[in-house]
Specification:
Elements: H1 2-18, H2 23-28, E1 48-52, H3 94-105, H4 107-110, H5 123-126, E2 131-135, E3 139-144, E4 150-154, E5 171-177, E6 180-186, E7 206-213, E8 218-226, E9 235-243, H6 257-265
Parallel strand pairs: 4-5
Antiparallel strand pairs: 1-2, 1-9, 2-3, 3-4, 5-6, 6-7, 7-8, 8-9
């Protein structure tokens, strides 16, 4: 009974933190639990290894458990999960919704993650792998293990320059709004999916990310996605990120190219693999 009574406040706190409606309320209540560490310039110190917990990489919206490839059994199945979309639904235009459904039907072979392509923004943040933030005053680096993806957030641009060419990770420009790091991302190539369920955007996508400290080892991550060619209006995802506290925590490179070769080129073998 004692264990059960002690678990109730913890469970309530977790529900509060994960709730899209209560996300901002959680920020105000963190003062009693400890302040976020500060960098040399007084800004929040985000240096470290971080990771999202949850199933957003499988599906940004509420979803039940689903089967994957039959040869993989439970290993390839999708775990059930609560969505991270504020308001619950992604506001697709009708044609884009049809494409999303086609993506879902072909997800086992068409997901860019399966092909070891870079994950894009915002997906790189909530993949089931840790990532590292290296914080400077002029630039902030974000290093992801999957497919050796990384990006530089330019903090020293009064008038941000457009990306010279579209790319998987786009071009990021940042600024501080109080204790919140705000990052404007554009110049994305439109090839990345948002999750394993086929949610997607085009090369017209603009992402505005917000990283707000909610304690010494947690960040509230928000990303607002705007793409007038795919969505009827801007929409937002919200989730916590947690600092990895295990000793010697670091990001290991996931060199996944060799694991995708048969998927991409197996049909070219003398004896095709598929």
């Amino acid at each position: 009974m004692r264990i059960r009574l002690k678990a109730v406040p913890v469970a309530a706190a977790v529900l509060l933190l994960l709730s899209p409606v209560a996300g901002r309320v959680a920020i105000a209540g963190q003062g009693a639990q400890g302040q976020a560490p500060r960098a040399w310039d007084g800004r929040p110190d985000f240096n470290g290894v971080w990771q999202a917990l949850g199933t957003a990489n499988w599906d940004l919206q509420d979803h039940p458990a689903r089967p994957g490839h039959p040869d993989l059994g439970a290993i390839g199945a999708m775990p059930p999960g609560q969505g991270v979309v504020v308001g619950g639904e992604i506001p697709y235009q009708p044609k884009a919704l049809d494409q999303k459904k086609k993506n879902f039907d072909n997800r086992m072979s068409e997901d860019p993650e399966a092909k070891c392509y870079m994950p894009g923004v915002p997906r790189a943040t909530y993949m089931p792998h840790p990532f590292q933030i290296i914080q400077g005053d002029q630039t902030i680096m974000m290093v992801y293990g999957f497919a050796e993806a990384n990006r530089t957030i330019h903090m020293n641009k009064a008038n941000p320059e457009p990306a010279p060419i579209d790319s998987w990770m786009g071009r990021s420009h940042g600024k501080w709004e109080g204790d919140t790091l705000v990052v404007d991302v554009a110049g994305l190539n439109g090839e990345a999916w948002l999750d394993r369920s086929g949610n997607f955007a085009s090369s017209s996508l603009r992402v505005v990310e917000r990283y707000s400290p909610i304690g010494p080892n947690a960040i509230l991550y928000e990303a607002t996605l705007e793409d007038p060619t795919v969505f009827t209006r801007p929409w937002t995802i919200r989730m916590p990120l947690y600092r990895r506290l295990d000793e010697g925590a670091r990001v290991l490179e996931f060199k996944c190219v060799e694991f995708s070769e048969d998927l991409l080129y197996g049909s070219l073998r003398k004896v095709p693999t598929r």
